[in-house]
Design a protein that fits this description.
- With 330 residues, the chain is of the alpha/beta class.
- The protein is built from nine helices and ten strands.
- Helix 4 crosses helix 9, helix 5 packs antiparallel against helix 7 and helix 6 crosses helix 7.
- The two termini are 32 Å apart.
- Bound molecules: 5'-O-[(R)-(carboxyoxy)(hydroxy)phosphoryl]adenosine and zinc ion.
- The site of zinc ion has 5 residues, from helix 4.
- The site of 5'-O-[(R)-(carboxyoxy)(hydroxy)phosphoryl]adenosine has 19 residues, from helix 5 and helix 6.
Amino acid sequence: MEGAGRARPRLILALETSCDETAAAIVTDAGEIRADVVASQADLHARYGGVVPEIASRRHLELVTPVVREALAEAGVALDDVDCVAVTQGPGLIGALLVGIAAAKAIAWSRRLPLVPVDHLHGHVASLYLQPEPLEPPFLCLLASGGHTMLLDVRGHDEERLLGTTLDDAAGEAFDKGARLLGLGYPGGRELDLLARTGDPDALQFPVARVPGLDFSFSGLKTALLYATRELGEAELAARRADLAASYQRAIIRALVGRVREAVEQTGETRVAVVGGVAANSELRAALPDAAFAPLALCTDNAAMIASAARFAAPVSYPGYLGLDAYASR
Ligand code: KG4
Ligand code: ZN
């Protein structure tokens, strides 16, 4: 407990299985990461060009116990040293979420520990609250991942207001679909980012959708890339892939950065933070030099961020949590 003299810190064991990463972490209640284990299933889904929910659930089932064991070993602790269990409740794939929730309930029940259900998106924001450089609210937060794109006005550790969201595809989805059109692997955000570095971002002009308020829209952009690839033909496409990647990425980043600037103007809140898988993008990081970015390892899905969010939420005690259910969307 914090402030309790030389008492050992309380340890949170967190599980995250909302999509295609099986993750477990051990974090202290002061936000220090003792273990952060992520087993990615990306290779398993790559040949399908996207996450296959049934395959994801089955793989989570195989991986969840070894991943928890590995987290405990990495932290050098036993299950008896854990004080609290946290788990992602949603949004995500229901079958995938249920594996983590069932495992978390079983662990909590076996040791009579309290359980904290955590919202995955809130978890992404809480990736900023971890040591060694925790960010304190208030700030504006751009959350850009494979499933979501949101602008949040974060007022407290557990208090955020939604300013804008995507009307169609998420930013990460736009990266993944663009990467696919350019013949890159899945998930393609990182590969597109790398390819874009060797291309000319002004080679092609892709439209940045204008939608009202602080919302986003990326589906038109993906269609524009589709037409551009068709017009070029195969040989020309191969020669200009890097230019296409750079121009396409430029359009996504412009849309994101434009909205962040508008949100700053409208709210008067000048501190900006960026979280989620797309926060790993090099052009986005360069385009917002004054913003706080989640550390690279904590941008894509992980359980340390879930443990971090659990520090600021009310735990559910036994047997109340046995009835906890997953939710697919917020
Ligand atoms: O947060 P995350 O791991 O999963 C969701 O909650 O959706 O985000 C994954 C997304 C994928 O769409 C991936 O392509 C994208 O983040 N991503 C990137 C980069 N690294 C990962 N997008 C652009 N540039 C990157 N460097
Ligand atoms: Zn995520």
